[in-house]
Amino acid sequence: MPEVVHRVNQHKAELRKVIEGLLPENCDREDWASAVAMAIDGAVVRAKWGEPTEAIHGFNHLIEGVCCLKPQT
Length: 73
Fold this sequence. Notes:
Elements: H1 2-22, H2 29-48, H3 52-67
Helix pairs in contact: 1-2, 2-3
């Protein structure tokens, strides 16, 4: 089982790095990438619980916020 936990953690780290690379350079990319990755996990769980509409709705709000990122000052 430790191998599974290790692989899951490795996958999540890889996912955050991919997301980070898609974000604009003028924002706190690491924090936003973690937030988006967590939202993806949450959306998957809600969809698996039979709540796909709620999963998509919440995830869309986060993505809308990411799209409105402003430069850091």
